[in-house]
Amino acid sequence: MTLPQRLMSAAAALGVATGLLAGPVSATAADADTAAVTFRIQVPKRLSVKKTDKYDKYCRMDVWVWGAKGSTVAYSNVDLIDPHGHIEPVISYRKVLPGYQVGWGVGCPAKPADTGKYTARVIAYNRSGKKLATRQESWYEKFDTAIGSFNAAPEPVRKGRTLTVSGRLFRLNDRATGYTSYSGKTMRIYFRPKGTKTWKYMGSAKTAKDGRFRKGFKASRDGTWRAYFPGTSHCDKQVSRDDYVDVK
Question: What range does the record give for the signal peptide (predicted)?
Fold first, then answer.
């Protein structure tokens, strides 16, 4: 399903259509007696898609926008901008009155091309059609990642010898086929000495074509190792399991 179709389907389920909703949010939605323009936009904080997610639980999220308010505001235009910077004209709203509510239903992206940064933009106009002010809010729709086969070895290790941290990074390919190797990404390696609560950054390693990574360190003291992937605009961040190593 294409992006416009996906969002239109969800919007229809919410009972909204392209244009203006039936009425104001409340009886107190009149303009304040001020020249200032105020905005209200409500977007999801984040949307991370896993293969095992159930659509009803994780993928039915709403984006709500209210017409800008102010003594000089006559109406607002509201647009949805996709990760490629394109405005979706089919599901835009035109001439939304001050305080009136419009919105879209947001579903899980079906493929990597649908992931990334989405933006809801509001442009306020006066009665003459002059642009007064613009406000926008964004959210990210990302695919899940996973770190497998994480290990710090040998265990135990002699002090001064090389301890190797390794693992494999995966990302969701699509919800039907599951996960695939994630190459060319930087993994950050951290160490927490025994008896402390603070993680220390030790170095980084880049994933190979099969998603595998490895990095050697000089063993100095007992402690716990972990790997961290900071994520991208399309794939979510991830932390490996912890692996404790004795140093003899």
Answer: 1-29
